[in-house]
Design goal:
Blueprint: H1 8-15, E1 18-22, H2 35-48, E2 53-56, H3 68-82, E3 87-91, H4 97-110, E4 114-118, H5 129-142, E5 146-151, H6 161-167, E6 173-178, H7 182-192, E7 197-199, H8 203-213, E8 217-221, H9 223-226, H10 234-243, H11 247-255, H12 258-266, H13 273-283, H14 300-312
Parallel strand pairs: 1-2, 1-8, 2-3, 3-4, 4-5, 5-6, 6-7
Length: 317
């Protein structure tokens, strides 16, 4: 741990900044995790693309198909590969509470910076507020590491801004990845003030969130390493321009990425998000590989369409 429990919020305010990306897990043909490929990807993301933090073993990383041992190993590799060059936030999300705590303790023991735990699926429950408050309080009671909340539609509901503000009073709740409509995260930003770092995964909205909501953290998804190359750091560039108050320049750079965004999104089959992004990774020279069941692989035709869009989108290789 780089801070005490009662220092978690202040530490996050000082260090949880910039562009953080959610890591896809590269896999070999036998569906084992390509550890060497992951290490190469992390070095590329951090050193070449200037990404400041990594979200490990989340939904992009296919945590739902991994054993606890694999998830812990994933944490270990990321901490070792990042060293002091980038931050780490480990996804400890799980329907089993004991698994959440086991993963959280492991992340704390190996020196991860933070953990993230998404709101669980709650069967039969309609009045969720007290259950969810108690859920996160129990996690806070068990570990000292800084915790990010995560609310998204996959849980079957969205946590209200009022609940999130209440949870922000817990000592080691430091941030939230709030995958909700913009009006909801705007409301929470106003409610929470300095008690909670609010962010969301939409790169499309990132510039507006810097300029209109004074955000300083992008938390987080795959665009930082899919729409950038060592010779084309436009997301990093427009972010730094916006941070410096040069908004018109930032907007021009951001708007120039429209063809890249369109190529990446328009060729993604609705049921194959991770698989399509891994194909795109491979075209960039990053380690990608197949996805695990129950996810579906890309067809040859889908790969061909993605490849054609990649080569005509204007990304500088």
């Amino acid at each position: 741990m780089k801070y005490r429990k009662n220092e978690a919020k202040q530490y996050a305010r000082e260090h949880m900044k910039g562009i953080w990306a959610a890591a896809l897990n590269p896999m070999r043909a036998d569906f084992s995790i390509d550890e060497e490929g992951l290490e190469r990807n992390i070095a590329h993301w951090v050193d070449d693309l200037k990404i400041q933090g990594l979200f490990i073993a989340g939904k992009q990383g296919e945590f739902f198909s991994m054993s606890l041992a694999e998830r812990k190993r994933n944490f270990d590799l990321a901490v070792q590969a990042c060293g002091d060059r980038a931050g780490t936030i480990m996804s400890c999300s799980d329907q089993n509470f004991d698994a959440v705590i086991e993963l959280a303790r492991h992340a704390q023991q190996i020196g991860a910076d933070y953990i993230v735990v998404h709101a669980p699926v709650l069967h039969f429950i309609h009045d969720r507020e007290e259950t969810l408050f108690n859920y996160y309080k129990m996690i806070c009671d068990e570990v000292d590491i800084g915790i990010a909340l995560w609310s998204h539609p996959d849980s079957g509901y969205l946590m209200t801004p009022e609940l999130c503000k209440r949870l922000a009073d817990l000592p080691n709740i430091v941030a939230i990845k709030y995958s909700v409509p913009r009006e909801m995260y705007t409301e929470l930003s106003k409610l929470a003030g300095d008690s909670l770092i609010v962010s969301t995964a939409s790169e499309d909205e990132w510039l507006d969130n810097i300029t209109e909501l004074d955000w300083r953290l992008y938390l987080c998804s795959s665009p930082p390493y899919l729409i950038q190359t060592p010779n084309d750091l436009r997301m990093h560039e427009y972010t730094e321009l916006a941070f410096a108050g040069r908004v018109d320049e930032a907007r021009k750079v951001s708007e120039s990425l429209a063809p890249v965004r369109h190529a990446l999104k328009s060729t993604r089959p609705g049921g194959k998000p991770q698989a399509q992004q891994k194909v795109w990774q491979s075209l960039l020279g990053q380690a990608g590989g197949p996805v695990r069941a129950p996810l579906l692989q890309m067809t040859d035709q889908e790969i061909a369409v993605t490849t054609d869009a990649f080569h005509t989108c204007g990304l500088k290789l």
